[in-house]
Amino acid sequence: MKNPKKILAWALPVTALLSAPAAIMAETFTGKLNGHGCAHAGTTCPVDRLDPHIALESDFVLQKGSGDYYFLPNLPYGVKVRHVLEDVQVDGTLDKRYNQIDVNLKFPNFLEQ
């Protein structure tokens, strides 16, 4: 039978590496929170925070200056509405398949304001 201490000494570091938090691989993304429909059309809206258009938007996205935008599916809708049209910075992991950022909820810079 193999020495359990040797197996444990090898298995613990491997397990630690494989279960490392996503924050290690996270990136920082900056942009403006914009309505999805408007971002898709290439415009910025709502015009201001009192614009009734906010109620018509199904979701809000992080839009970069280049026009590219990313969904933030794990951020609550109310948080996105509260910070619509603001320049924001989030830490998270980009999922290119779904064009979304899985935000690290422990460190979104704009939630602390």
Q: How would you explain this protein's 3D organization?
A:
With 113 residues, the protein is an alpha+beta fold. It has 4 helices and 5 strands; from the N terminus they run H-E-H-H-E-E-H-E-E. The chain has a 5-stranded antiparallel β-sheet with strand order 3-2-1-4-5. The longest helix is centred in the first third of the chain and has 15 residues, at 4-18. The protein starts with a helix and ends in a 10-residue tail after the last strand. 19% of the residues are buried. The model is unreliable at 7-20 (pLDDT under 50).
Q: What is the typical, i.e. mean, pLDDT? A: 79
- N-C termini distance: 58 Å
Order of helices and strands: HEHHEEHEE
Q: What amount of the residues lies in strands?
A: 25-35%
According to DSSP, the number of beta strands is 5
Strand order of the largest sheet: 3-2-1-4-5
> Structural class per helix/strand content?
alpha+beta
Backbone CA Rg: 19 Å
List keywords for this structure.
about 110 residues, alpha+beta, 4 helices, about 25% helix
Brief summary of the model shown:
Helices cover 27% and strands 26% of the residues.
Topology record:
Blueprint: H1 4-18, E1 27-35, H2 36-41, H3 53-56, E2 60-63, E3 69-71, H4 77-82, E4 87-95, E5 100-103
Antiparallel strand pairs: 1-2, 1-4, 2-3, 4-5
